[in-house]
Amino acid sequence: MEKRVNYEDLIIDLYIFNKLERKSANMSTAKLLFLFEEELYNKNMIGAHYKMKRHTWGPYNQKIGTNLKNLALNGYLKYIENYYDKAEKDVKIYRKNKITTKFLKSIDELIQEYSVIFTVLDDIIYEYGDLKAEELKDHLYSLESVGVAYKRIEAYKLYSIILDPDSLRNPKVNFYLDEDWYDTIEIMINPDMFHKIREAIVSTQYGKFKQL
Amino acid sequence: MKTIPRSDREDIILNLKRIDKEDIKRRPYLKGELKPFKKYRIGDYRILLSYCAECYNKYREEFNCNICNKNSLEQIVVHLIDKRPKMYRKMKRK
Predict the structure, then answer these.
(1) Which of A9, A103, A201, A202 to mutate to test the interface with B (most CBs of B within 10 A)?
(2) Closest by alpha carbon to A183, among B64, B57, B80?
(3) Which of A106, A135, A148, A150 is the most exposed place for a label (fewest CB within 10 A)?
(4) Is the ipTM above a cut-off of 0.85?
(5) Which domains are assigned to chain A?
(6) In this predicted structure, which of A37-41, A194-198, A206-210 has the lowest mean pLDDT?
(7) Are B34 and A187 an interchain contact pair (Cβ–Cβ within 8 Å)?
């Protein structure tokens, strides 16, 4: 049985970076994702599917870092490494590139289909996108009632779940790829496959083929 | 095709020659930029193809396809054959 990949989360990650006019690291991106998921949770909708746990630096899920790293390694984001004093280690900082924008343009139909979800994300980025990581953290920690238990972030035990979007039983809207979109994204987000498809399209345009 | 092992290649060609056009017609199109293509599977291989009789009026102009011949639309064009990973492969490291 093949494991289903959460391409929805990758699409949302890329969408955030495409809209942000600045670079962002894991924790900063996670905070924007948390605000997005929290807003949707309160509207009984699901966008990204990250289960957010309380970490030292705020709500986080390890998959966020893994996804961003993989997207960058496959050319969908640019990244640099910078030493971050507070973490006392090198931190990857990501930014969009031309491929980010190109990819999202190619799936515009999907984004329009789920415009109700992406409009919320647009609003979150508009309101919080310019805040630095520390400012985002201060904002999150100032909120009185967040997550599944409707309490302050500090009131959650370390590493306990603050928010699990998939816990919503009957969401009004759930950003979930149907089989056709899943197959399409699976091909397009694989750089080798995407390149082969482009070559195939050029071949048809030049009428190049071999008869079996 | 050259990169596909010989035994798999023969199997794929045999299956492609036997493709039922009605079956292809029933299959949905992919989406977005891949909308002229339909997917088909032969063993572990993912095939992207189009059936000219269906595709000719829908996508030929949009994609500027020069394979179709309006006098000979009863053909299936295979655009891509790729081995599908059994599990999600971790994306490559550069």
Answers:
(1) A201
(2) B80
(3) A150
(4) no
(5) 7-205 (1.10.10.10)
(6) A206-210
(7) yes
